[in-house]
Amino acid sequence: MESQLSIRNLGVDFRTPLGRVHALRDVSFEVPKGRILGIVGESGSGKSTVIWTVLRLLAGNAIVTGGEIDFGGRDVLDFGEADLRQYRGEDVSVVFQDPMTSQIPVLTYGQQMLDVLYRRRNMTVAQKRQLAVDMMRRVGIADPESRIEAYPHQFSGGMRQRISIAMALMMDPFLLIADEPTTALDVTMEAQIMHLMRSLQQELQATLIVVSHNLGLIAQLCDEVVVMYAGEVVERGDVRQIFYSAQHPYTRALIECDPARVLERSRALPTIPGDVPDLRTPPVGCVFAPRCPKVFDLCRTVAPPSYDAGDGHEARCHLLHPEQGDPDWPPPIGEIRVFESQRPASDGRAPAAAATPPRGGVAPAAAPTAPLLEVENLRVRFRTAGAFRALVRGIADPHVDGVRSASFALRRGETLGIVGESGSGKTTAARAILGLVRTHSGSVRYQGRDITNLPPAAFKPLRRDMAMMFQDPVGSLSPRKTVLSLLTEPFDIHRVPVEDRYREAERLCDTVKFPRNFLSRYPHELSGGQARRVGVARALALQPKLVLADEPTAGLDVSVQGEILNLMAELQRTHGLGYVIITHNLPVVRHISDRLAIMYLGRIVEYGDSEKIFAQPAHPYTEALVNGIPRPDPDRRRTLVSIEGEVPSLARRPPGCEFHPRCPYAQERCRIEEPLDRALSDGRTIRCHFPLVA
Amino acid sequence: MALAAPAAEKRYSERREKLAAFMQNGPGVFGLVLVVLFFVSAIFAPWIAPYDPNALDIPARLSDPGWAHFAGTDQLGRDTFSRVLYGGRVALKIAAIGVSLSLFLGLVFGILAGYGPRWLDNLLLLTFDTVRSFPLIVLALATVAVTGPSLELVLVIIIVTSIPGYARLARTSTLALRNTEFIVAERSLGAGNWRIMGRHIMPNVVGPLLILGAMDVPVVVTVEAGLSFLGLGVLPPTASWGTILNEGYLVIRDTPWMVVAGGVPLVLTTLGFTFLGEALRDVFDPRLRKGS
Amino acid sequence: MWLYSLKRAGLAVVIVLCTLFVLFALLRFIPGDPITIALGPRATPEAIARYVEKMQLDSSLLVQFLVYAKNALTGDLGTAIFSERPVATIVMEVLPNTLILAAVGLGWSVLIGVPLGCFAAIRPNSPLDRITGFISVGTIAVPAFLVSIWSLLLFAIELRILPVIGAGEDGDIVGQAVHLILPAFAVGLGWVGYLARLVRASMLEVMGENYIRAARAYGLPQNTIVYRYALRVAVLPTITLIGIGFGGLLSGAVFAEIIFQRPGAGLLIYDSVVGRNFPIVQGAVLVITIVYIAATLLADLAVAWLDPRVRETL
Fold it and tell me: A215 with A255: CB under 8 angstroms?
């Protein structure tokens, strides 16, 4: 197979004030022509550095220490300015991760696209414009003739990413690189973009490199895969080889940790313990040795070369050594886990039935009769414009409903997952429960007591019982306070007398396995995972009964998100906590929640036992979400996109059933009549005229 | 990805790192030297000055710089160099009181505007915008028309016109913080508004204001000099850099040295504080590099 | 764009009203009888009676203010003491001089400062960058009025190559231009450095943005990236700050007029303060303030024209 691009023995260092970081070491792989290559890695793997090197757009402190990048017979690393100008945009093009910041905000798309076409000197302006319009239409932008004169900020994220793809493909490049193309997008939009990329690639027979940490995306999209860890290529092969017979322990562990892959619900998610090594001093032997469960002596002393596993499949692991390796390695994926002892001794779960005992270990009989939390018909409104501005702009009612109507309940020891995409109202609902935003109508009851819109002074004592964990782990900690003062602040606020603050703080650290000697650190000195632990510890400081966690795994690598989740599950078992988990990450929420509430545009559209919902979604939106999860299984590729369009703006809600414009099953009745909550035979509540399940 | 350095060592090295960064900033060190010079010469003027600044010596009037008088003498025979040193005391006094009061009030107003209710914000904004709509000298002239010239007047004008600058900065920072997760987190813990404003917002907002303050000192000193030059502020016979310039301007055809002597300390002070302020900003808060 | 302009102009009007209020209040604080202050010590009883009638001095303060405001906005700024000429006329006679001085001062500093900052940002740490930095700091360090004094000293008195005082004779364009050189130089010098640093800092920040990186990845030529993309964004905060700084420019112009004895609104105010001719003070201050407010309005409109996101903020 002919290669579009060949990378051989590439090495890149970064000069930092703290020393020289060896970000890439001896990286080699081929990009076959007309195929899609995926580069998989977690943070620190160097996958982004590779593509910046291919584009020759590295930061000023980067040094290429060796190797070559062969493109069409020439070494890209030797290109001069003129060559690079020809190369970039014409031969190679990029789709960036964040469409919100990678497009200049002060020029219209028309202007930007015409600029990109500057090289086509034989085309008139009108012809260029037509090409741009055609490209926009091809990527699914409606009415491109007029939309091309609009500015980027007038488009949503999904649209902007589509236009990024259009701009990248306009020049018909030989190679297209997509850097985390769907990371910033919602699940349903992700599915659409994936589908778009696949169809465009087939149509244009383009060569594509997709960089991602999302195994599902890679499995769904790519033909070949390169797995990177800590600056090295640890394995490469075609997609089925990687997913069905991975040779490197890291690859296997990565696949096993992916919650989307773990098909049966498991109480504890696997993780890879330890951290990525400090790349200023990479280990002498195999770079994965410190964390590898199959490590043996050779691994620590000799860096493994790339062993051939047959058919173009290679892995850097001594287990494949002809003499010293393990002849029984590897076992088929799924049969024996790389990490054995992740499950607690007794699972003790009753089979899915009407009365699933809560995972907190508190049997229903012993639980208090009143649910911990009851929310009924919650409605939260926001003002979009001040009175004066509304007058000036002629807006009759300057409000939108962040939450239109939400009802759910939570018992002690239970976990409820609230799932939705952007604009669903899930975070707003959480804040309304905690009294941080005003409830317009409906009620929130805590342990039977009505706490809706309780005045701050009256609410304050309740805050000891209800704690929140925030999405941004470092950002939710006051920047100029040490961890010690952050952990003990709840005691000050609620005037709880504390004999020894230090001892209390240490106790909290131990609960969440946070190192005690970090108490004097400031938030910006903590890693994401450490900051999250501080968030958990602080939430638990006053021994709450209810914890609301907003996106507890956001920003965490797949191999470490299990740590936080397992910790939360353990704490739930020990203290009988009730959790409300707010997230858009379906694979994760499936494993950790007892019940689910799926939200769309501020309403709960489906509510009930989470296993049932995943097994058989009853609402078309739920079905779209569940089907939209990219499964890390190359043989199960979805060929159809189950949902089109975008989430409508809260200010312009569709009539009738608000989901009907995007619903593949919509009928006449859905356009006119708003559906009401109704119960299904298995105990679920659903808001749909034509549920998919009786 | 956590680096392996243990906590104590890391924090220590962060402070050291900042100090080292500062020391490497050439202009910053230079500025520091000038600033120290300013303070020392102003505070110790009575001991350093060779003559009493008000001592007349008519026969020696309007002499050129020489060994007897480093900067020459003015039209009444007073030693210009001594007057310059004493002028520094006036500058220091105005700078100290002016900057600290405006900073403090600006901080308070800014935080209130940013964190408080919308109507308060609008009211304060309107007030600031109105005050800022008057070009400084024009406002000073109009006010002097009302009250007559004095040092106190200069101080009040400076403070009133400086507050909006600090308040705006504090307000912008407060607004940015207001919706950050950590403020919401504090509210979810039960912290009240005053606690949040005082313990969480203020420490994060005051940093840029202090740096603005450092860079504001030369502005304040210059304004005082300008107003005194016009006869609107410090009045003769008190020595201030502005009055020296005023008197020098009146005799400019007879001797150039007074306007030089009155102006050089202004330039040096401005250079010093500007370099220092920028070095501090680069070291502590590089995000502030944007514009004013 | 039009809607935004309208709203922004409305805001400007509100601020003008507030400044009117301040000026009104200010003059009420003058020790002394408002009538004597307005009309001078030698006013006749008839003049006094007419004045009381006209300004409604018998009515409440609110009414007085409204009368004052209405008068001011329709161009009636009262009459000067002694000369009895309308203040508005007096001010308008000299205002063009001030405006020309401010415009020329700003103009030449923009023509030099902005490109300097831009080139310095394109090649950071190059010799050009270092020289620019040096010049910038040097020019910022010397306050405008000091530049006026020293340039007067150097060019007019010591070297005798430029005129010392005045604005030149009417009709003599060349002479007027020559008289403009030193004051405009003094007014603009500090701005050269200020603008250069501003533009440089802004450009450096913009050049690090993601969309610039994306533009490079698309292979756009360096010129397009710098001038059409980076500069266009970087210049926005610069324009805003020029608008805000215009007040300082006017202050510098006032000093220049006083030092060079150049007729203009600034010198007028100064002389009137000294001569205790309050109606002129009040009227001229109002006019200059309105000029400043208009400048900030223009700056904001320019930014909104260049940056479409701003249009949605009002």
Answer: yes
Q: Which two tokens stand for residue A243?
A: 């997913």
Q: Which candidate from A86, A88, A392 shows the least CB-CB separation from C216?
A: A88
- Do the chains contact at A96 and C224, CB–CB below 8 Å? no
Q: Which residue of C has its CA nearest to A150?
A: C308
The DSSP code for A355 is S
Is the pLDDT at B7 greater than 70, yes or no? Answer: no
By C-alpha distance, which of A252, A248, A303, A257 is closest to A26? A303
Q: Does A153 touch chain C (CB under 8 A)?
A: yes
Q: How far is residue A519's CA from residue A504's CA, in Å, rounded to a whole number?
A: 12
Dump the DSSP string for C232-293: HHHHHHHHHHHHHHHHHHHHHHHHHHHHHT--SHHHHHHHHHHTT-HHHHHHHHHHHHHHHH
pLDDT of residue A555: 78
Q: Are residues A198 and A222 in contact, defined by beta-carbon separation less than 8 angstroms?
A: no
| pLDDT lower than 50: segments of chain A | 335-367
Question: Which amino acid, residue C97?
Answer: N
- pLDDT band of residue B265 (cuts 50, 70, 90) is very high
DSSP letter for each residue of A229-255 = ETTEEEEEEEHHHHHHS--SHHHHHHH
What pLDDT is attached to residue A340?
A: 32
Tokens of A603: 């309403």
Q: What is the pLDDT of residues C232-242, one digit of tens each?
A: 999 998 998 89
Q: What is residue C135's predicted lDDT score, i.e. its pLDDT?
A: 86
- The CA distances from residue B102 to B155, B165, B194, C248, C251, in Å, are 10, 9, 21, 19, 21
Q: How far is CA C225 from CA A15, A127, C94, C203, C213, in A?
A: 27, 23, 45, 11, 10
Q: Which of A476, A486, A534 would you mutate first to test chain B, the one with the most B CBs within 10 A?
A: A476
Q: Is A521 on the interface with B (CB under 8 A)?
A: yes
Q: Quick one: pLDDT at residue A518?
A: 86
- The Cα–Cα gap between A173 and A117 comes to 12
Which of A18, A436, A479 is closest, CB to CB, to B188?
A: A436
Residue B102 has pLDDT above 90, yes or no: yes
Per-residue DSSP letter, A601? T
- Decide if C142 and B292 are in contact by the 8 Å CB cutoff: no
B152 contact partners, CB below 8 Å, separation of at least 6: none
CA A668 to chain CA centroid, nearest Å: 36
Percent of chain B's residues with pLDDT above 70: 92
CA distance A61 to chain C (A): 14
Q: In this complex, which of B4, B10, B192 lies closest to A525 when CB atoms are compared?
A: B10
Residue C255: closest CA among C191, C193, C187: C187
DSSP H helix total and E strand total for chain B: 12, 0
Look at residue A532 and give its three-state secondary structure. helix
The DSSP element (H or E) to which A597 belongs, if any, is strand A595-600
Could you tell me if A54 and A5 are in contact, meaning their C-beta atoms sit under 8 angstroms apart?
Answer: yes
As a whole number of Å, the end-to-end CA separation of chain B is: 36
Say whether pLDDT at C31 is over 80: no
Q: Is A29:A57 a contact under the CB 8 Å cutoff? A: no
Percentage, residues of chain A above pLDDT 90: 32
What pLDDT was estimated at residue A261? 74
Q: Which chains touch B (3 or more CB pairs under 8 A)?
A: A, C
β-bridge partners, C173 = none
> pLDDT tens across C69-117, in order?
888 888 788 777 777 788 888 899 999 999 999 999 999 999 999 999 9
The region of weakest confidence among A149-153, B9-13, C14-18 is: B9-13
Distance CA(A263)–CA(A152), nearest Å, equals 40
Q: Output the pLDDT for position A23.
A: 92
SS3 label, residue A589: helix
Residue positions counted in chain C = 314
- Which residue is it, tokens 């050779």? A298
For the record, the structure tokens of C159 come out as 């070297």
